[in-house]
Amino acid sequence: DIAEHLTTLYLKHCERGNRCLYEGSTPPGVFRNSWNGAMYCNSELAMEKYNEIHTCDRGYDDNRNQ
Question: Which of 22, 26, 58, 63 has the most other CB atoms within 10 Å of its CB?
Answer without folding.
Answer: 26
